[in-house]
Amino acid sequence: MHFISENVVPALELCILNISVADLAIQTCDTLTTIRWLAHHGLIANQRICDKCQRLMSFQARRGKYYMDGYCWACSKCCRKKNIRLGSFFDRSHLSLIQIVEILYSWSLERSQVEVSRQTGISTHTLVDWYNFIRDICARYLIDNPVEMGGPDRTVEIDESKFMKRKHYRGKFKPDQWVLGMVERETDVTMMVPVDNRDAATIFPVISQYVRAGTRIVTNGWRNYNALPRYELENHGYTFVAPEDPTNNVEGSWDLCKVKFRAMRGTNDANFNSHLQEFLWRRRIKDNFFGNILYWIRYYYDVL
Ligand SMILES: [Zn+2]
To answer: Is CATH 3.30.420.10 correct for 155-285?
Structure first.
């Protein structure tokens, strides 16, 4: 056979893919079914052309340590073989495809690594790696889809908050991480950026990176911003004002973020950014995290 699945769904269908645990268990019940499911959703190549002969390779059963899934692509003319995972998100892993799909699904439901490890038998060490691979997708999405907020007649609320970071070594105190939060009041568009400190001079360049000129900015630190050099303020046309309403949007976003970080009992330095990016990705995507992470995996690992 020159293909794995009879058809491949359009990428956008992944965004609305809504699948229950029970359905997923059926659709990934064994290796071949899982391979078909992945090819059908465009997550592994559904066809492959031999590099040498430029003809379609055939999908066939193959045993051996290089073909851990039990299948490969083979050229009928020159006998070349190719791994079915080649170039995909699933490439170069010792886990089975069924396990990786299960990890993706568990991540989408925000299940903890300890819980997933207990249920699947996959080590937490391996799960940490996979959760990081998935967060890399979130990070790339945020880089490629930058937010801009504010503008004339718009209000952006900003606030700085301290997040507790986990101590690396017992007894050694790690300083907390300041994070600048920005929320556009009219749309709830959010951005959070780690910053070294909460000085107006440190934070102003970050604001100017995300917030359009002419925005009214609500902040407790309005006095400090208004004390910045005149030309800075005039260049960007911002108006800094005091929060008139204490129950504002930015507080709500902080509460959500802090609840999540508390649930993880803090996070270490290296992971702090990637956890923040996951949080922001989920906030941007809003729902159906499984289908949407698959969509972005397909987007970045274009195997078709
Ligand atoms: Zn060939």
So the answer is: yes
